[in-house]
């Protein structure tokens, strides 16, 4: 059973890593394995929803503008980008869930994230903003976001890579990635709640749940603000070094013992 300290740590991990290009789901798997936790789907849904609240709190002006002008270019780009994300998520959900539960490929997924970040940083920006962005650009970003359903493949990392590869400038690429996360996180949460209720496995221990959600919301808010402040001056390669190291450590553990992440062979 999840205790309050574990809930605090997991909420902190979720909030800090959701909007950094290092994979929040991958980090949650790591810590849940280290803590020996299983079947904490309700908690996972709750902390993901908390980070949704966090990004909405930071970008509330943009969200209000979108609601005022729902048929202007930005919301339409978000809708177009969300379509491939939703299709990939729905059609391949069972396959990706099996990978998530096994954690055997976790180390390799972190390495994939690192390679994608490295590639994205090597692409020269054409300084495209909202005015120059096309619906093809949005589709590419949406496909990238959909592929990030793998647990240790970073959603923000892949969406940023997709946006930068299409020539978007860094500031707009980051904001578009964050705005794209809102329907993606909300949709994933709704699906998880549906599956949990359908399976009859909805269980809630209120205190750890509240602690985890509050921690995830506050740390997620700080994470979004941090990225908006430093991303234009920070290379994605900094984050790639981290996920490369993390992936190698996990693979070594799998080769040596496999106690936490399962043996490779």
From TrEMBL:
InterPro entries: UppP
Assigned EC number: 3.6.1.27
One example of a Gene Ontology biological process annotation: response to antibiotic
Enzyme class: hydrolase
Domain of life (superkingdom): Bacteria
Predominant localisation class: membrane
Keyword Cell division tagged: no
Record's protein name: Undecaprenyl-diphosphatase
Primary gene name: uppP
